[in-house]
Design a protein that fits this description.
Blueprint (H helix, E strand, L loop, with lengths): L6 E4 L9 H17 L2 E4 L13 H12 L22 H13 L3 E4 L3 H13 L16 H9 L5 E4 L7 E5 L3 E5 L8 E3 L7 H11 L4 E5 L6 H11 L5 E5 L2 E2 L15 H6 L4 H9 L14 H7 L10 E2 L2 H13 L3 H13 L10 H11 L8 H5 L12 H7 L4 H13 L6 H15 L4 H12 L7 H8 L1 H14 L4
Parallel strand pairs: 1-2, 8-9, 10-11
Antiparallel strand pairs: 3-4, 4-7, 5-6
Helix pairs in contact: 1-10, 6-7, 9-11, 12-13, 16-17, 16-18, 16-20, 17-19, 18-20
The structure holds glutamic acid (GLU).
């Protein structure tokens, strides 16, 4: 290892949002660094001028901050190895490309797009396994090169890949990997606009920033032999590589926008907790081997290791994410859930209604086992915040019988006699009313739930009655008697 303190980096090309795959890469780098007492670095790879998106880097930093992946070095947190924007390091890349050219390991190429196209077509005709540059410009004399430059011809700088042994590297996840050197193209290092390609900038920066472990998505695996050659040509020690498995949709296709959200920002807007997303994303390709699914961030830091990252693709299962979101909400003290619920109410149609903390805590206790999102308190049990707006027709058909009108009338009368009823008082009163009429308690329980909530599911019916309180319960029963019509 180059250095005793592990140094890892998340090196996104900012696109305007953070892809969940990017989050997974950032998270594994972060967990690895924290587990090992190392440093987590954010480097913005913004050398592709065609893909420039205004404000994208700021957006990315904001999302990383929200999710809690605080970096040790990066934008606005300059360390020894900055700047951390590649667009501010152009001279550095030029220096190394010149060095490679001086040593005959790289050369200027003036080939036009047209010539390259013809070359590709020719190679396709010959059924070559892959298109490769034919080193045409390697043979230009210094005079020809000068003349081309004087004539204002644009050029790129290419790596001069020479014949040799297989290019080998070891990867923590994929073990020993090798590529035939012959298959590696004379890749472009500096583009005609003077900007470096990903390959050159990435390798130079990983070296200069003393990155010890390159942890990134599997889609970069095919670039790695090119990088390994660059390390070799520059005489630098290789970092440790770890390529993370692909993220897949449920149908095992590559995770795509078409099948659901891929932007972390969308998940945030939908009310997913930062802790739940971290927990979920951590399990996309890694497990501690202990069959545990619920983790807080500290536990992830303690348990994480690259050795337990799997090779096969990881399926993105939104239902599991929803379940984890509920679990993380439930793991919080009621007081914290109360704050979240109040924020949710403040943003809802109930904003100008007043609910006491005491009442809301009761709602939380009754409902928290049944929710995945804080907003579920409002949508699944809106009856705590407003009268039923309608009565579920299926439940009416099943539960409201011709004699329910009379049963409910009797029940309301019984409830009238109660003073500050507890849950048990409501239960006793209901059982007494049922007994007086000579019917089973079920004949009252289902209709009264429907009457006070408008639906057929929810917390225990006596909890429901108790939380709503005598006054609302009686008034809602009377409303239901008037409103519910059956044939
Ligand atoms: N800029 C590359 C990306 O957008 C970095 C890949 C790597 O980590 O080497 O993901």
């Amino acid at each position: 290892m180059i250095n005793n303190t592990p140094r890892v980096r998340f090196a996104p090309s900012p696109t305007g949002y953070l892809h969940v795959g990017g989050l997974r890469t950032a998270l594994y780098n972060y967990l690895f660094a924290k587990n090992k007492g190392g440093k987590f670095i954010l480097r913005i790879e913004d050398t592709d001028q065609n893909r420039f998106v205004e404000g994208a880097a700021e957006q990315l930093v904001e999302t990383l901050n929200w999710i809690g992946l605080n970096y040790d070095e990066g934008p606005n947190k300059e360390g020894e190895y900055g700047p951390y924007f590649q667009s501010k390091r152009l001279d550095i890349y030029k220096k190394y490309s010149n060095q490679l050219m001086d040593e005959g390991k790289a050369y200027k190429c003036f080939c036009t797009a047209e010539r390259l196209k013809e070359l590709r077509e020719e190679q396709q005709k010959q059924k070559l396994p892959q298109a490769k540059y034919d080193k045409h410009c390697l043979n230009l004399s210094p005079e020809e090169i000068d003349a081309n430059i004087k004539a204002g011809k644009s050029y790129v700088v290419r790596l001069n890949v020479k014949p040799g042994d297989k290019v080998k590297f070891s990867d923590v996840v994929r073990k020993d990997v090798e590529f035939d050197r012959e298959t590696i193209d004379d890749q472009i290092l500096i583009k005609s606009d003077g900007f470096p390609t990903y390959h050159l900038a990435n390798v130079v920066d990983d070296h200069l920033m003393k990155i010890t472990h390159v942890i990134r998505g599997e889609e970069w695996l095919s670039s790695t032999p090119k990088h390994v050659l660059l390390y070799e040509y520059l005489g630098w020690e290789l970092p440790v590589f770890a390529h993370l498995p692909l993220l897949l949709n449920e149908n095992k296709s590559k995770l795509s926008k078409r099948q659901g959200d891929v932007a972390v920002e969308d998940y945030k807007d939908k009310g997913y907790l930062q802790e739940a997303l971290i927990n979920f994303v951590a399990l996309l390709g890694w497990s501690a081997g202990d069959n545990v699914e619920f983790y807080k961030s500290e536990d992830l830091i303690n348990k994480f290791s690259l050795e337990r990252v799997q090779k096969s693709g990881a399926v993105f299962n939104v239902e599991k994410l929803n379940w984890l979101n509920g679990e993380h909400i439930r793991s919080k003290p009621n007081q914290d859930i109360l704050e979240m619920l109040k924020n949710e109410l403040a943003d809802s149609k109930f904003a100008n209604k007043d609910f006491s903390d005491d009442f809301l805590i009761k709602v939380i206790e009754a409902m928290k086992e049944r929710i995945s999102f804080v907003s579920d308190f409002l949508t699944r049990s809106n009856y705590f915040f407003e009268e039923p707006q309608s009565y579920d027709e299926k439940v009416v058909a099943k539960r409201w019988k011709p004699d329910s009108y009379e049963h409910m009338k009797k029940l309301a009368e019984e409830f009238e006699t109660l003073k500050n009823p507890t849950k048990d008082d409501f239960e006793a009163a209901l059982r007494k009313a049922a007994e007086d009429i000579g019917v089973g308690a079920g004949k009252m329980i289902h209709p009264v739930r429907l009457a006070v909530s408008g639906i057929g599911v929810g917390p225990g019916v006596f909890d429901l009655l108790y939380i709503l309180g005598k006054e609302k319960v009686i008034s809602r029963i009377n409303t239901a008697i008037n409103k519910i019509k059956i044939d």
